[in-house]
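Here is a protein:
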Amino acid sequence: MFSKFFVITAGASLAAAATTNTNLQSVFPSPSGTTALAAVRTITAGQSLDGGMKQWDRSPSTCNEQAEGGDSDAVFLLADGATLSNVIIGPNNGEGVHCLGTCTLNNVWWTDVCEDAATFKQKSGTSYVNGGGARNADDKVLQHNGAGTVAVKNFYAENVGKLYRSCGNCGTQYARASTFDNVKVVGGDVVAGVNGNLGDTTSVKNSCLLSGTEACWLYKGVTSGEPSKTASVADGKTCATSGVKSSGC
């Protein structure tokens, strides 16, 4: 099914590469230009794309509010070991980024999240989100459907629901891990929603959570139907916190 997709291979990165700033930034960058894709763009296994700080989006739009989309609704599809850097993702897409295996997202920004900003489908290993940010997500920003670990560092989120959600009702479930280091969330509901009954673990450290944003919500994950929330606080086991501030940061 991928034959119709645009593919990025070695040596196909943009010539005018931007500086990759993976520090915590709380101001959304201005795009250096715009690119509208008719189909999802694929980065092949182990390869990299530097987006040059352009705003990348889909045309026509694939955003269908909170309706669940698939790989073809994304802007970028990353194969195992791929890296995406210096990209601003616009509002006219349903899924943003899909990682089929482990991936690295460096300085990636989402201006207006539709269904999800990024979805992680790896069967093992660690995916990294370094720097960047997202805003205006009615529900989730980072969706973890596969296994392994998602490690988030120096990320900024504004006006979002959940910064991260371990899938609550995937047909195949895993014990997932996630870490959040030096994230700043303004006007969010929660940093991480995780399934305590399935062996999930998460940690939130050295972070700034403002305007009522909570660190963790714990759920009872299922393979069909809807998951149920079991707690709204860190329990020190499924969810551990340290150095988290709610003011003055």
Observations:
- Confidence is low (pLDDT under 50) at residues 1-16.
